[in-house]
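Dock magnesium ion; give full complex structure.
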Amino acid sequence: MGPISYTALVAHHPDSVTPQELQQLVDSSLQRVNRLMSTYIPESDVSRFNASNSTDFIPVDPETAQVVQRAIQISQQTEGAFDITVGPAVNLWKFGPDKESVESLPSEDEVLEVRSLIGFEKLQVRSDPPAIRKSEPKLKIDLSAIAKGYAVDMVAKALDDASCKQYMVEVGGEVFVRGQRAKGGPWQIGVERPDSTQSANRPLLGANREVYRVASISDSALASSGDYRNFFEFKGKRFSHTIDPKTCQPVEHGLATACIIADDCMTADALATAVMVLGPEAGQSVCKAAGVEFLLITRDSDFGTELTEVKSDSFPVSKIESAKKSKSSSAQGIWPTFIAAAVIMGLAILGMAVGSIFANKPVQGSCGGLSSATGEDGDSSCTICSKPTTDCVERAEA
Ligand code: ADP
Ligand code: MG
């Protein structure tokens, strides 16, 4: 799947397994999925299938067949908005593995040509023995919008098998959480503010990332698709990497983020992409029919900053409390320190006063300091001493 970062955070693990062993389980799960489904590895199931023009069944690993099967189901559920055969259009719009800078947009003829190579109904899968086949010799598959979610599920399964009960797994931004976080309570997963101000033409992950909403979840997956990471600008218009398989063009509506919570991450991942294609209205209907929670964030214009959101009734948004809390707690937290400091200073002043009253002792430092300071005439300026020394008295009388 190319260079994708991941996180596996295990809050507690049984004594029967060490952190090093857990790391190995995580890595081997990810490597297995990558070996089967990457388009960067020539021997992967996906690359072999794409390189072949045969319309016969091509044997694949049972896991690859399972992911392709689920992809086809989601295509049917979303009336083709999600389609893993969309690769030629992704490449035509220069979002493929060999990205290059965009100097012109594809012509209508080019779009029509790739249209004839796309369509999930030209793809068939069987599980016994596991194999996939194409009815169009040039058909290719691209699992970019579902394989990360599947990889998350596979890491989660490995951790479940190792009896881990509290963990969070994230691959390229798609998440699954089990149980509660270490401090207790549901896991808090940030949903990024869709930032339209990032520089165009393949921006790297900008430093100006900001949490927009926080979802509180346990034993669920959360996946997001957005238009703000992988996009280019051409003649003042934004083109993002989600392609509508019907038009073979980047989607046009103002949906900036589709965030989906489902039982498994493969479903959440694929549905997030499908909803990005469908737009807010049709997207909501598909989510309701699929029984998943959704949060959809829409931008007022291509480069606008005004955002509106719509979410399912049970989408578990929690407040972003950390920043506010620390502000108010720091304001509250200053009082004990302030009171303690005032009490100590008060005691010190009282101590000095008691010393002055009962021992009839001048405050030596001040007197010494003032008496050694001289005015313009060279005389001491010490005139306020409560108990002047002989030297002071002599000077004062002179
Ligand atoms: P991200 O990679 O940011 O998580 P997605 O999960 O939405 O985003 O996957 C987007 C990728 O999926 C695109 O870069 C492209 O390779 C592929 N893709 C684009 N449009 C579709 C589509 N309609 N159906 C399936 N895959 C798509
Ligand atoms: Mg996705």
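Observed: Residues 82-84, 86, 90, 95, 142, 144-145, 172-173, 225, 229-230, 241-243, 245, 269, 273, 276-277 surround adenosine-5'-diphosphate (ligand 1) (CB under 6 Å).
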